[in-house]
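Fold sample X.
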Amino acid sequence: MSRTHTCPGCGRDDRVQAVPAVYLGGRDAVSSRERDRDGDMRTVTRTVTTGLSRALAPMPEPPSYAVGCLGVLAVAVAVGTFLGGALGGKWFEDEPAPAEPVERSGYQLVAPEPPFGAAGPPPDVGFLAWISAFALLAAVLVFTLLYRRKARFTRLTRGRHRAEELWSCGWYCHRCGTVHFEGVPGEDRAPLTLQQFRERVWAHGGYGDLAGEQRAVAALGE
């Protein structure tokens, strides 16, 4: 390896590696056999990422969409309560007209009382309509929040290609745990911590503010 790829911190080159190689080397696809909900065995492939690889990422992690589960649950509640109210309260059935008393030969005839145990009027389930409406409103708010998060992340990371141009010129020293740039105009070869390297790269892409929210942390020995 040429002398220009030596670490400016320790002055050695035996453990200096290009940042893209370190980043990709810490992302492994691991397959395992697991049982699904039906009890059948299936092969599941997951990506296992080391802390060092995450610390050297050229862009921030996308926002979490776990709150979407609440939106799906809210939709299920809205549909369930609506169907329960529609079926139990017979919301869409025409109510029978009340029996009118009939005059006949001086006597007033009225409808007989229903026998004991006969079905009476449907229960009042109007509250289910309110529950369904609130659950539907909650689902709309959750999905709106997810959409805005995704749109904001897409807008912030439009300059990813600029960040990757600088990122690809970085070199990581496994002995010192620092990164330095090679052949970048305006950037010296001073060793940088993982956090400093992240701030430089992400700022070059236009999302440097996120470097303070997602700090670069790697375990010792990686």
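Fold sample Y, listed below.
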Amino acid sequence: MAFRLASPLAADAGRRAAREAVGAAVPAIELVDSRTGWSFDAPLAVADNSLDAGIVLGSDVDPAGIALGDESVTLRVDGSPVDSGVGADVLGNPLAALTWLADAVDGLAAGALVTTGSLTEPFPVDAGETVTASFASLGDVTLRVE
């Protein structure tokens, strides 16, 4: 999942301030790739731009009333489930990832779009396949690989 900030988030913010700064929760599929193969450690992953190859976003959702740590997702390839997870799979709560980042970069500006980290394991897909991430409260986001 990703968050779009409605207001700035200070470096030393706690989880409550992070929740208040979030204007929208967004269903997302993170695209990962590695120029070094799939055997790597943390320093190599960082040197490879954290394996970032892109992101596919769904529609913004008002996070009010959503228990983000309990928000579940099922990842499907061509309709078949391949993995699932919950928000708590990211540092215990996706807001913890948001506060960590705000602290690491000395605060985040209003309007920032921040991904929280993966709720599922990365899963390889091939040309012609369709990937859908179905979130319990945030809805679906779909990617067709060409």
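Sample Y note: The longest helix spans residues 94-104.
Also: The chain has a mean pLDDT of 90.
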